[in-house]
Description:
By secondary structure, this protein is of the alpha/beta class. The protein has 2 domains: 7-38 and 304-420, Aspartate Aminotransferase, domain 1, CATH 3.90.1150; 43-277, Type I PLP-dependent aspartate aminotransferase-like (Major domain) (Aspartate Aminotransferase, domain 2, 3-Layer(aba) Sandwich). The protein is built from 14 helices and 17 strands. The protein has a 7-stranded mixed beta sheet, sandwiched between helices. Strand 5 (114-118), helix 5 (127-130) and strand 6 form a beta-alpha-beta unit. The two termini are 42 Å apart.
Amino acid sequence: xxxxxxxxxxxxxxxxxxxxxxxxxxxxxxxxxxxxxxxxxxxxxxxxxxxxxxxxxxxxxxxxxxxxxxxxxxxxxxxxxxxxxxxxxxxxxxxxxxxxxxxxxxxxxxxxxxxxxxxxxxxxxxxxxxxxxxxxxxxxxxxxxxxxxxxxxxxxxxxxxxxxxxxxxxxxxxxxxxxxxxxxxxxxxxxxxxxxxxxxxxxxxxxxxxxxxxxxxxxxxxxxxxxxxxxxxxxxxxxxxxxxxxxxxxxxxxxxxxxxxxxxxxxxxxxxxxxxxxxxxxxxxxxxxxxxxxxxxxxxxxxxxxxxxxxxxxxxxxxxxxxxxxxxxxxxxxxxxxxxxxxxxxxxxxxxxxxxxxxxxxxxxxxxxxxxxxxxxxxxxxxxxxxxxxxxxxxxxxxxxxxxxxxxxxxxxxxxxxxxxx
Length: 422
């Protein structure tokens, strides 16, 4: 039985799909840089600012309402991640959350302690940890296989040692879509007593997350990658965060998680919008739960609907992704930069055109209303140094979302063919 994805009801919630460029309906394939936002998320943010706007911990009605909204945000994101609400913290961005965590961990590092990062990661999960070298840490980076665009587990095992204190690893590459089996990396890291941080920014919009199943200490993601506003989310394992001296002002409310990780006044309106983005995913799940009933055993309530929603989004995107890859592969001038078919991956498709700069291709598509990303996407190490693509402008990246259609995929393939025939 094939999934009957309720596309029309999903599309109708995104005002952006009605826009045109040069008479062409916009095709949003820029999702890996940030998805479009459903109207309900915008309404929720506006509702907070218009009717509940206040700081927390007051004795008056809008302040009390703000605290409830904050609590609801933690609960919704906890259901999204598969954790408890007091393990969810918010910050201005994933990169910002990583820097705060890195500087907190630096307080207990000693010269010679080792930190492992990877060559496949976005700089948001590399730069904060590289800076720990300023505190005497030794930074090691796991290599990428240039043919399969996958991390070398053997290289990881060689770099891991009793001196390893931190392992920061990518779950899904924002450059190639590669999905890494992070659990086996985490399990080994814990054997030597290291703290683990998983970057799930590119993974979160495409696959269900269960932080308890992978066993990580921390996981970071960004709400604007899964239909929400620009806000960073971090899962902080209770047993781990309770032992860390976080970076905060000297106040009496900074001792308990999750508040101990947050600095200053939270962005309440964006937290409200993030909770609504999670509800949007859950509503998709309600319409498709029966199709995934075998995969949802043991789950209940909103968590069940969220997982069903993510499974539905994933399956819908995968069908389009396969057509996109096959169509691009037939163009002689195109080289794909995606893992092999037997390797796990997101629906993101990246490629180059022989002899052409990636930016020139992106501009040609943009004139036709097809929005794609070009460059290194801050995955600087893999694109510029491992794959050596800097001179040709990096990659052209196409990202799929549930508001895309198969018709849009065919139009995009045709447009790339047209460009290559010029």
